[in-house]
Amino acid sequence: MKIKVINPNTTHSMTRKIGECARRAAAPGTEISAVSPMMGPASIESHYDEALSVPGVLEEIRRGEAERVDGYVIACFGDPGLFAAREAARGPVIGIAEAAMHVASMIGNGFGIVTTLERTCGIAWDLSDRYGMRRFCRAIRSCELNVLDLEDTGSTAYQVILAECRRAMNEDKIDSIVLGCAGMADLCSSIENDLGITVIDGVSAAIKLVESLVQLGLKTSKRGEWAAPLPKAYSGLMKDFAVS
Amino acid sequence: MKIKVINPNTTHSMTRKIGECARRAAAPGTEISAVSPMMGPASIESHYDEALSVPGVLEEIRRGEAERVDGYVIACFGDPGLFAAREAARGPVIGIAEAAMHVASMIGNGFGIVTTLERTCGIAWDLSDRYGMRRFCRAIRSCELNVLDLEDTGSTAYQVILAECRRAMNEDKIDSIVLGCAGMADLCSSIENDLGITVIDGVSAAIKLVESLVQLGLKTSKRGEWAAPLPKAYSGLMKDFAVS
Amino acid sequence: MKIKVINPNTTHSMTRKIGECARRAAAPGTEISAVSPMMGPASIESHYDEALSVPGVLEEIRRGEAERVDGYVIACFGDPGLFAAREAARGPVIGIAEAAMHVASMIGNGFGIVTTLERTCGIAWDLSDRYGMRRFCRAIRSCELNVLDLEDTGSTAYQVILAECRRAMNEDKIDSIVLGCAGMADLCSSIENDLGITVIDGVSAAIKLVESLVQLGLKTSKRGEWAAPLPKAYSGLMKDFAVS
Amino acid sequence: MKIKVINPNTTHSMTRKIGECARRAAAPGTEISAVSPMMGPASIESHYDEALSVPGVLEEIRRGEAERVDGYVIACFGDPGLFAAREAARGPVIGIAEAAMHVASMIGNGFGIVTTLERTCGIAWDLSDRYGMRRFCRAIRSCELNVLDLEDTGSTAYQVILAECRRAMNEDKIDSIVLGCAGMADLCSSIENDLGITVIDGVSAAIKLVESLVQLGLKTSKRGEWAAPLPKAYSGLMKDFAVS
Amino acid sequence: MKIKVINPNTTHSMTRKIGECARRAAAPGTEISAVSPMMGPASIESHYDEALSVPGVLEEIRRGEAERVDGYVIACFGDPGLFAAREAARGPVIGIAEAAMHVASMIGNGFGIVTTLERTCGIAWDLSDRYGMRRFCRAIRSCELNVLDLEDTGSTAYQVILAECRRAMNEDKIDSIVLGCAGMADLCSSIENDLGITVIDGVSAAIKLVESLVQLGLKTSKRGEWAAPLPKAYSGLMKDFAVS
Amino acid sequence: MKIKVINPNTTHSMTRKIGECARRAAAPGTEISAVSPMMGPASIESHYDEALSVPGVLEEIRRGEAERVDGYVIACFGDPGLFAAREAARGPVIGIAEAAMHVASMIGNGFGIVTTLERTCGIAWDLSDRYGMRRFCRAIRSCELNVLDLEDTGSTAYQVILAECRRAMNEDKIDSIVLGCAGMADLCSSIENDLGITVIDGVSAAIKLVESLVQLGLKTSKRGEWAAPLPKAYSGLMKDFAVS
After folding, report:
1. Which residues of B touch F (CB under 8 A)?
2. What is the pLDDT along chain B (244 residues), one digit of tens a residue?
3. Alpha-carbon gap, residue B110 to B136, rounded angstroms
4. Arch. (CATH architecture) of A2-95+204-241
5. Which chains touch B (3 or more CB pairs under 8 A)?
6. From 3.30.930.30, 3.40.50.12500, 3.30.750.24, 3.40.50.2300, which CATH number describes the A97-201 domain?
7. CATH of domain C2-96+204-241
8. Which end of chain E is more exposed for a tag (fewer CB within 10 A), N or C?
């Protein structure tokens, strides 16, 4: 089984980290490719960044379809372009926020999210609505870290995140913590060890869900909202995105 | 990995069928045991039947814990005793309605459920609320078949179910059909072939979700609502259920 | 009119207390019987305890039907087995959480619940959803008391509960307090006197609601979800629960 | 116990009918007075009529308070002025829509409402939201009858209502029918007999709920939203409504 | 275009202030008349006051219709009589709470309301539900000021309101503040200047929305719930409200 | 006041039509510019098309900011890129679906949407949730027309749309119809005349709302979710979108 993990930003150190987490989670026989798009923002911290990461994500989906990829993971906690990607793909496409929230709802009755910037918390709340997971989401906390601070190995980022997770654990009546950024994927077990609470990384969770769907023979349904895009003219910088 | 599939009713022909579906879905290396409890109703078609199936389910969980089972599936579409089972188990426990609904929400934007008796539709609606899946559930239809009609191989049950699934497909604006009874697990691919719409069987879906959770190292959280039951006296027929 | 009050746990001192509250609330001419089942847990503090109390509750319903009981109260704040009991009974069946929440919504615009253990708060929130009462429920607080602490007359339980009720009154913007445990039924007027806020006991409330329904000639509707259970085989410890 | 039933319209034949239903429902020892206000519309079929019925309702509450009435019923299915009346009264005040919906939610899992005019259905849907009862309300149907048609004993009103109730019973998956107009209170048992489905009249239901609250010693909470109106100047036609 | 602004209370100093705000907001060519009714309460601080302000509001609508007014604003934050007024008017009618909440949802993702008395906060929450705006309303705070304190120019009211707005800004994760009383309309720019957060006054917002609707040729729809009131007898103090 | 209307697709005949509707709706003194982006799809009929229209929309916002535009309208019924545009703009940005739904909720209690393709109905339902307008949205119907069929003046598109609007009017209990495609903006008054029901065009509505916000001095709040995008590297085709 081939699963393509798309990190929607163009920071390759993060893509490598995500790829490692994905491979650790994958079953024997699952082939993981982890990529960054060839266009787009270095990090995603706003609706603007999200929107402009999507063309790159869709280009990677198109390549993946040509390579007969079986399923995809979108590895940014805003799940940018998820529904557009489902239209463009035959197989299943899972976002890491989607995966983490669903999984959290199965092992505890309430989860909290710890993410980077306060300004993105609204995006996460909206996703929890979109996936039906709001009833399980008790609180969303931010660390006021930039995404790329997570790539700076000498930074105090880990301590800041750990402290916020501790507050979540102590104050928010939660059964587990969801890490709200793909760049935190490698911190999962450290935080779990340091705090003694279940910590969920969306990258690993999404890998398992895509594997599950593929093994169940479930593809994205093409009957309704996620049918293939219609052929039409595209122009300007977007001209190569036309489907035929 | 050991997964125990508990069919909460005592009809062994159904348990065998469920076990076969479970084994087909399982990954290499997953060991499936499929059981019926030693007490309870022959079929589950009401809140009353559900409630009285739960002690038997919990007894099987207790045995499973002694046998170091890694995770459990409750294989009746009402997911009877799911939360009590989570308290009693260390590993994850997934209900087949829960599994089917979550999976359906990832491959289409709306699903329909086709189940046995009208009187159980309210139970399924309530579960869709409980799991956050109501926004994806477009309609729930019943065939007015009894659960055990599904075990009568000479019956017209398949045709009745197929006809109802066709109506769901044509009238309910759905992307997939969820089969609302563990006894229908073996009909999944036939209906899919006959109708050309994705059909989801909760037993297979639940197997993959439990495998996923186990591989992710995720157990039922013991911090909150699903902590282990407290030690206390139990009496009468229930005396052996006391935990110590 | 005969009303049977079923305390789902087997602690007879609590059953006596519940019976006294019920009789104080009952109209002249209402005959109250208060019972504990002959099987089940000594106290109910989890989904597990709830689930295993239900067979005993249903056995008491069956006896009640034989004795031509007019209506039932299930006197545990988790309302265990309520819907199964409705299937098994001709007359109305009311849970004490259900009764307390409905009544509270009629005399104030927001209520708070004070209950025993944190781990049961999720159950109460879910019931508030189930009955449509979440919009009136402002907060649910626990005292971290075990249910049977309430039976220990020398304990400090009352002071602990009073303190938590005071916090609820001062911090939660509520018009009334609902006591979240049948074992607190006798504390209602003391707390009300000590704090000067309306305090609602579900046992008394449920008695009045059952009386009301019986006097209105309203029985549990048998048209839909709460129709009588279907005849079928039951086996093992549950064999006597088969309806014929 | 003194209960005052206020028919917010000024049609005395309807008030008499309401009074009779109320007295039939009342317990021995309950003294029922049924009145129409001295001002307002002959019937209530719009927001406009509702709004202009409220001063008359509040005047009757004020008189009731002077007469030491224990509780009130507002006997129009829009429950006009319910919250203002609660502010003005010491004891409980119940609307008939509120009463009927709460009661219906306890004896079945879904109810339908049959009312007079289509234009008032939105008001009933909004009340179902207001009371938390929308999840139990499956459908609201109108007969396109004017309220005062119900007072014309030679009319075909009964047949029209019966036909609509039959459609509700057959098409709306309901366990009971709530009659959506105080003027239908006397039709309850006829429809129940003709159709064989539980039919709920809000007037009777409200009487029992007010009696229940009074016997429980529960008054309208004065801590929050329903505290007594503040003293202030009133002018013009409204000058006598000032509280002091 | 003629817009009539109805201050539902009878305090003329407040009406003048509201009229000035309205005129400042109005487009060239919009003719504003600002009135108090000839009957009703001096201020509105409860359901009771609201209900008794409505006849006066409706009388002003009737006069407005005779004068061919194009649209109306109801200038009290409880939007008293809004739906009744829509039935009585041909043109659009907008409440200031409605206007402020809608506008706030377009320029930020979350707003807070700062109002006078705690007892009216529930009314504002209910309006946020009624207009679909609850998802944008993060918190409602009261200053424990009486409405008429705002008319006392020597009072400390401004400092009290400013302090509460500051707390809202700092603690409630909001993008803007909605002032929850028509009597605060003139404080909008001062608070905005003092705090550096967007502050929304419903009077100005409502003027622009009514102008917009009139310019779009949109009148209150008479097809459904807001059709003109039906002709019928009215009696007592209300006798002049009959439509014919 | 300068308002820029961005038609997110690249079909200039549609942009001209939209511009004409916008100018007809605009107040004297409002300067309207209507543009198509220089990149993107010829029509928008899927999540894929929407996503790929957004970079072009954002480029137009950037140009608009350089030209000191006061406010923006996004003139496609999916409101693509609305939140990203709000981050990038100082002034208000309104989507036509947003505008039409808000306006419809003020002149009637229920609206219906008539749009082009069934596959886009889910997008419109989700927007109704996003804006808090689901409670007013009774039904969404599609005509199974492609967007560009609306540009073919010899087509039967008008008759098809009219027929669907008639069904909506007769079957969906609605007070008004919202046209669910910017390409239908010019059909508004014809349909209204032919059917006698209020028909709402989002382009006109959005113009009035942007004018209103600008005149009120309300800009997009920069305190929270819609703060300006952070400076960072952008690469590939997207490299010019970096903010500095």
Report:
1. 109-110, 173
2. 999 999 999 999 999 999 999 999 999 999 999 999 999 999 999 999 999 999 999 999 999 999 999 999 999 999 999 999 999 999 999 999 999 999 999 999 999 999 999 999 999 999 999 999 999 999 999 999 998 888 887 778 999 999 999 999 999 999 999 999 999 989 999 999 999 999 999 999 999 999 999 999 999 999 999 999 999 999 999 999 999 8
3. 5
4. 3-Layer(aba) Sandwich (3.40)
5. A, C, D, F
6. 3.40.50.12500
7. 3.40.50.12500
8. C
